[in-house]
Design a protein that fits this description.
2 copies of one chain form a homodimer. The first copy, chain A, contains 9 helices and 12 strands. By secondary structure, chain A is of the alpha/beta class. A 6-stranded parallel sheet of chain A has the order 2-1-3-4-5-11, with helices on both faces. Chain A starts with 9 loop residues before the first helix and ends in a 16-residue tail after the last strand. In chain A, α2 packs across α9, α5 runs parallel beside α6 and α7 packs across α8. Chain A binds a DNA duplex through α1.
Chain lengths: 306, 306
Amino acid sequence: MATLGYSPSALARALATRQTHLVGVLVGDASDPYFAGILRGVEDTAREFGYLVLLCNTDRNAEVERRYLQLLRDYTVDGILFAGGCLSDPEHVKELRALVSRMREQGTALVALGRYPFPIPTVNIDNEAAVRAVMAHLIELGHRRIAFIAGRPGVTTSDDRLVGYRTALEAAGLPYDPNLVLPGDYTYAGGQRAAGLMLNCHPRPSAVLAVNDASAIGCLAALKEAGIAVPAEVSVAGINDIPVARYVEPPLTTVSVPLQDLGVTGMRVLLRVLAGESVPAEHRLPHRLIIRRSTVVFHSQPGRNV
Amino acid sequence: MATLGYSPSALARALATRQTHLVGVLVGDASDPYFAGILRGVEDTAREFGYLVLLCNTDRNAEVERRYLQLLRDYTVDGILFAGGCLSDPEHVKELRALVSRMREQGTALVALGRYPFPIPTVNIDNEAAVRAVMAHLIELGHRRIAFIAGRPGVTTSDDRLVGYRTALEAAGLPYDPNLVLPGDYTYAGGQRAAGLMLNCHPRPSAVLAVNDASAIGCLAALKEAGIAVPAEVSVAGINDIPVARYVEPPLTTVSVPLQDLGVTGMRVLLRVLAGESVPAEHRLPHRLIIRRSTVVFHSQPGRNV
DNA sequence: TTCCGCATGGAAAGCGCTTTCAACAGAAAC
DNA sequence: GTTTCTGTTGAAAGCGCTTTCCATGCGGAA
């Protein structure tokens, strides 16, 4: 019968056993190297344990997220991994809470990568500390006016990192200037635009930290385009250490975030709650400051900065 | 009952209707910007039409590919999209053929992105022509010794592009020197290693074309690391135009491949065969040469080359 | 009033598996 | 030879939906 090419229907089995061996992964955008890295980790361990992953790009859109959640519920997936920074919009959170609690009652395993407004197991890095680490580095180099390229407000990862930025400033006794936090959207192009905004700041910041590497890289390119030397005139740093970060010019100072490991651990935790084990409410993975050549000591440049 | 939070079982429905509304996507590596772009296109249109996508990373490993295929068959997915360059290993192709033909008989829709050794509908760009376009550009700039960073032999995309390289050489009356085709693996790190190999070539090539942008970017960084100016001393070009290509220094000359559109079209074709329509055996999408600053006219540099 | 047609509703069968339960056979103990 | 226990096998029920089919009812035409 094996020679005849029989293949058992996973569907029928799932219906009978109430186990689908499917897990849904909600990401902001799978083509973002950040999520792509996480996704690899998730998929690798899912495969290792015989699970199939359903890819759900939410584009950080509340409506899309809810629809996907409902769909995943219809398919009675065994578990769901929230890999995006969650949207903190109260209305959305409320609706989500209803859906999520229903799914949990139904036995679906839920795990979040990053802070989440529901009491579900979480695996995360310490975003605030990560930002403080780069900020400390920048400040130690003598920078006093440091811009911050933000992500979208209302996304937890972005918010946490912004808090880290403010805390670091405060800890160093530096003033917080709202004009120095530039809007971004996690993309290369967003970083590029933010750089344009930064050039309008007077006095011009001597350093800029971006909420993620993509923004930093876009910023890097825009600064050079504008004839500003990096790092000689402006230091640039990012966060995440996506693969390409070390290959741009100058190689990007950043904070290494174990993307793949985040995915692996997230999936492992999911598997454990599926097995009925009790898991700690929060897993914290280490980050590490990576100093490359995009940041150097501050030299005041008469006639340039004012 | 809607207020009660009833959700129909997609599984039971699938079992009864023999339609799962699931599609499997086989990619080499979802964290590679090339596949990530394609995947976005696939996922977007899948969602638009009410399909869920099962992500399968094969790592271009025949064994993994077969296992995934079998798994997708067990789940009786409605269709499968082969998004990786296929492995041309004869043994593997043979086994694949058996599996694939069984699935087709079973009614599964099959579509390939890129050349495929089975007669299934295909959507693709003209890889050979794409390579010839960059090569023509390089040759027009006066380059005569052009290295090629390859992908893995036995992967159709890589093979096709290598053929394009040879054809272009031939068309220009330039000799083909096997020493100038450097092994790579599509990654930044692979490009970096290839650059090291290139430095051992005598006379040193004045230009290098990489099978994909990631390789080109890794090569770029390694050359600069070695103190070689790009493009002044060596011109570098890639293929695919991944998002970061324009943000590296110097911005990368490359061939724009409509990654997202490849995914969208692939999924659309899949949907059409699912609907029972007859589709053309091959869809060809346009590519476009993008000249940026990583390639310039050849200047012989006495004492450097030779 | 009778008959036909069409619409509506409810019951039953079936999708392909797991699981439970009963029946049965064989082996061991008395 | 009978009883009990273990183990194996086969049948049946159930997972939650779709689909088919038949019965019922109604309106319009004869």
